[in-house]
Specification:
By secondary structure, the protein is an all-alpha fold. It has 15 helices and no strands. The N and C termini lie far apart (56 Å).
Length: 303
């Protein structure tokens, strides 16, 4: 069986609609269908969409498997842009699952691969630097993170898309949040969010959930739970702006559960913990948020 580009697009959109509605079984069927077709290039998209779906469910290992298959296929087909794009996805999943050495390794591979791209259609090199900087911050290697931030800033200033300075603002905002300089963190995150394009469907990155999550986290850590609540609610109301960041979307329900619990809104806290646990019922083992949500939910229901 074969697919033309229009058929592939339609299957992708259909899967995305199921994904957005929360019908994850049907979304997976649409993406798996693509992998049974003849065109290898179509498999690149299908595996990427499957990986994103698994992120939504907290299945980081399965997401990594799909992204790695896609990366190898992109290399085989000579699709440099796709290869660097999937190296970025691998970097992100390793970063979020706590495998920082692998995240750093993949970010460097993505940077090298992106250096071979012509132009800046997706600006993968800038994205690779951004993720490398975030990884160094997680490693507490602040000097290295600052070097990466400086390089990222210079590249963007000389590059094709000046609005990519939002990645620099996001990176240094994370650094400020780590040292509890929240006023600066708020300033940088708001600047970054102001430079986001509108949400749009398609194959391109939509970074809204990633950027808004940073601001929400900063508000929560600073003790302003009302502003944090507003930003997390903003994340769960996103459309295409959350498709590539399913783990962030899911964890927003967990964070809202904690916030509602702190506010004494028992019913809403239960509702959001249950939504989070429904999404991550088959998540990888050992994820602390899952265990914490279960304990909190049990306690609330017993009161």
């Amino acid at each position: 069986m074969s697919l033309d580009p229009t058929d592939l697009w339609n299957l992708g959109i259909k899967g995305h609609i199921y994904y957005s509605r929360g019908d994850l079984i049907e979304a997976e069927k649409e993406y798996q269908y693509i992998l049974r077709t003849e065109e290898q290039a179509s498999h690149l998209k299908g595996r990427g969409w499957l990986g994103d779906l698994y992120l939504l469910q907290g299945k980081f290992e399965k997401a990594n498997d799909q992204f790695e298959h896609a990366r190898k296929l992109a290399s085989k087909l000579g699709e440099i842009g796709s290869e660097s794009g999937y190296l970025l996805r691998l970097t992100y999943t390793y970063l979020k699952s706590g495998n920082l050495e692998k995240a750093l390794e993949e970010s460097k591979k993505a940077e090298r691969s992106a250096a071979e791209e012509r132009g800046c259609l997706y600006c993968h090199r800038e994205r690779a630097l951004h993720l490398k900087g975030l990884t160094y911050i997680k490693m507490k290697s602040m000097d290295e993170a600052q070097k990466v931030a400086d390089e990222l800033n210079e590249r963007i200033k000389k590059g094709y898309n000046r609005k990519y300075i939002r990645f620099y603002y996001h990176l240094i905002g994370i650094n400020e949040m780590e040292i509890k300089n929240f006023s600066k963190a708020f300033e940088y995150f708001k600047k970054a969010i102001s430079m986001l394009p509108s949400q749009y469907p398609g194959i391109h990155f939509n970074d809204h959930a990633l950027f808004i999550d940073a601001l929400a986290s900063a508000y929560y850590k600073a003790g302003d739970i009302e502003k944090a609540r507003a930003e997390y609610e903003r994340i769960i109301s996103l459309t295409s702006g959350r498709l590539y960041w399913g783990d962030i979307f899911a964890k927003s329900f967990y964070m809202l559960g904690k916030i509602y619990e702190e506010k004494g809104w028992k019913g809403k806290a239960i509702e959001h913990y249950e939504k989070f646990l429904e999404l991550w019922k088959d998540a990888d083992s050992g994820i602390p948020e899952v265990e914490d949500a279960r304990k909190r939910l049990t306690k609330l229901k017993s009161q």
